[in-house]
Design a protein that fits this description.
Elements (H helix, E strand, L loop, with lengths): L5 E6 L13 H7 L2 H7 L5 E5 L18 H19 L3 E6 L5 H15 L3 E6 L20 H5 L20 E6 L4 H8 L4 E4 H7 L2 H13 L3 E7 L21 H14 L2 E7 L10 H13 L15
Parallel strand pairs: 1-2, 1-3, 3-8, 4-5, 4-7, 5-6, 7-8
C-alpha cells in the first residue's frame, strides 16, 4: 500500500434505516477531496461513479418491523457484483451509504477470495456488533445485520445466499459500546473477536488489532475493513445518525489506520454511515478522508494542519 489502482465506488444506500441522509455520503467524500488525497500519496484513484441498485422484486418477511427490505436486497445484489468485479481490478473503496451496503460489499469480496483460493477476513470498526438478522431485529433497521449475513447466520432467506460465508474466527470487531442483550448473547456463542471500548481503554487498540493481523498474515488472507463513522467519538465525528459517546479518539483512529497500512494486508475498504446533513462544515467527511490517507500511508508529519475554529 498505497495500492496503485484505487477504485472509488459510490454506494448511495439509504434503505438500511429510517433516518435519511446517507445517500449524500459518496458526493461528500468526493467534495472533501478523497481522490486528490489518494493521488498525493502515489495512488492512482479511478472514480467509477455511483452504482445503482438491481431491479426491485417482490419480497416477503415474517418480521413486520423490517424497513426497506426490497430496496436493501436490490442494493445487496448490485454491490455483490460490483465488489467481486472491482477486486479483480484493484483496491476498491466503497463510499457509503448506510452500513447495510456491507451486505453486498462483503459478499462480493468474499466471493472473489473464494475464487482466488484465499481466506477472507473482516475487520469491523463500529460501535455496534451488527449481528442481528431480519428475524431478530426489533428496530427493523437492516444496517444492523451485515456481520450476521457475512458469517452465514440463518434468517436471510429473502437475500441472495452469502456466496462464501466468512468463518467467525476470521472476523474482528473493534470499538463496541452499544450492544443489546440479544446481540451480546449471539456474540458470546461465536468465535468472533469482539473488543469493546472498555478493553481498548484498559489495554489500548494496538494489541488486539496486531493479534488479528497476525492471523491474516499467517494464512495469506484478504482483509476487508469496514469503517463506520460511529466507530469515532461523536465529539470529532458528529455526522452520523447513530451517535454513541465514548468512541475512538482522533489518535486512536489514526493509529488503527497506520497499523493497517504497516501490515500491508488490507485489500478493500468501506466508508459508511456518513450523513452530511448532520455534519459541521464537512469536518466528519474530512476526518474520514484523513483516516483513509493514513491507511494509504500518510504519516503524522505528513498530515496537513487543519483548523475548524474559523
Amino acid at each position: 500500500m498505497p495500492h496503485p489502482n484505487c477504485l472509488l465506488i459510490g454506494a448511495p444506500v439509504d434503505s438500511g434505516k429510517r433516518r435519511a441522509g446517507c445517500l449524500m455520503g459518496p458526493d461528500a467524500y468526493r467534495t472533501a477531496g478523497l481522490a486528490d488525497t489518494l493521488a498525493s500519496l502515489g495512488a492512482s484513484p479511478e472514480d467509477l461513479g455511483n452504482i445503482a441498485p438491481a431491479p426491485l422484486r417482490p419480497v416477503t418477511a415474517a418480521n413486520p418491523a423490517l424497513h426497506g427490505l426490497a430496496e436493501t436486497i436490490a442494493w445487496t445484489e448490485a454491490l455483490t457484483e460490483a465488489a467481486r468485479d472491482a477486486m479483480a481490478r484493484g483496491f476498491p473503496i466503497f463510499l457509503g451509504g448506510d452500513h447495510s451496503l456491507s451486505l453486498g460489499t462483503v459478499a462480493g469480496v468474499a466471493s472473489h477470495a473464494a475464487r482466488a483460493g484465499r481466506p477472507q477476513f473482516l475487520l469491523w470498526l463500529d460501535a455496534h456488533a451488527d449481528m442481528h438478522t431480519p428475524d431478530t431485529t426489533t428496530s427493523g433497521h437492516l444496517h444492523g445485520t451485515p456481520v450476521a449475513y457475512a458469517t452465514g447466520r440463518a434468517g436471510f432467506e429473502a437475500f441472495p445466499p452469502m456466496p462464501a460465508p466468512i468463518p467467525q474466527d476470521q472476523v474482528c470487531i473493534l470499538g463496541l459500546r452499544s450492544v443489546d442483550r440479544q446481540e451480546n448473547e449471539m456474540l458470546g456463542q461465536t468465535g468472533i473477536a469482539a473488543h469493546d471500548m472498555r478493553a481498548i481503554d484498559e489495554y489500548g487498540v494496538a494489541p488486539p488489532l496486531r493479534a488479528f493481523l497476525e492471523k491474516v498474515a499467517t494464512v495469506n488472507g484478504f482483509l476487508h475493513v469496514s469503517l463506520d463513522v460511529d466507530f469515532l467519538d461523536p465529539g470529532i465525528a458528529p455526522a452520523v445518525g447513530t451517535t454513541v459517546p465514548g468512541g475512538a479518539t482522533f489518535r486512536e483512529a489514526h493509529l488503527v489506520m497506520e497499523i493497517l497500512h504497516d501490515s500491508g494486508l488490507v485489500t478493500s475498504l468501506d466508508l459508511v454511515e456518513l450523513n452530511p446533513f448532520l455534519d459541521e462544515r464537512g469536518r466528519t467527511a474530512s476526518l474520514m478522508v484523513d483516516l483513509t490517507a493514513s491507511l494509504m500511508g500518510r504519516r503524522v508529519f505528513d498530515r496537513p494542519t487543519r483548523s475548524f475554529a474559523a
